[in-house]
Specification:
It contains 5 helices and no strands. By secondary structure, it is an all-alpha fold. The protein has one domain. The longest helix is centred in the N-terminal third of the chain and has 20 residues. The relative contact order is 0.11.
Length: 62
C-alpha cells in the first residue's frame, strides 16, 4: 500500500506518517502532564518546528 502511493506523494505521506507516529509517542509520554495543552500547539504550527523543540524539552528524556 505504502509503496503504491509513495511515488505520488512521498513527502506528504511520509511526513504525515512520521508526524502521526511521533504525536502518538508524545501523547503516551505526555500522559503524566497535560497533553491537551501540547496538542493544540503542535497542530497549530508545523511539525518540523515542533519536533526539534520537543526533543530539546525534558519530555523526551522522561
Amino acid at each position: 500500500m505504502s509503496h503504491l502511493r509513495r511515488p505520488q506523494t512521498a513527502s506528504q505521506t511520509e511526513t504525515r506518517a512520521h508526524r502521526q507516529t511521533r504525536v502518538h509517542r508524545l501523547r503516551l509520554e505526555s500522559t503524566d502532564r497535560p497533553e491537551s495543552t501540547d496538542r493544540p500547539e503542535s497542530t497549530d504550527r508545523p511539525e518540523s518546528t515542533d519536533r526539534p523543540e520537543s526533543t530539546d524539552r525534558p519530555e523526551s528524556t522522561d
